[in-house]
Amino acid sequence: MACPEEIAYRMGYISREELAAQGDVMKKNGYGKYLLQIAGEE
Fold first, then answer.
1. Residue 41 clears pLDDT 90, i.e. is over it
2. How far apart are CA 12 and CA 42, in angstroms?
3. Which residues constitute the domain of residue 23?
4. How much is the pTM?
5. Cα dihedral sign, 8-36-26-24
């Protein structure tokens, strides 16, 4: 399964803050939690 937000973040198209904002919108499901986890890695 591809995660477009993760790919965009890792390629430098969106910032960590933008990734975290996307994760925050969906924080009640696993996908949002995953985005927040990636945003908090570095």
1. no
2. 14
3. 4-39
4. 0.88
5. negative
What tokens does 5 get? 């937000």
- Token readout for 25 is 């919108």
Residue identified by tokens 């009640």 is 28
Query: Residues 14-25: pLDDT tens digits?
Result: 999 999 999 999
* Type of residue numbered 10: R
CA 26, CA 42: separation in Å to the nearest integer? 20
Residue 11, φ and ψ in degrees, nearest 5: -90, 0
> What is the count of structural domains for the chain?
1
Sign of the four-CA dihedral 25, 29, 31, 32: positive
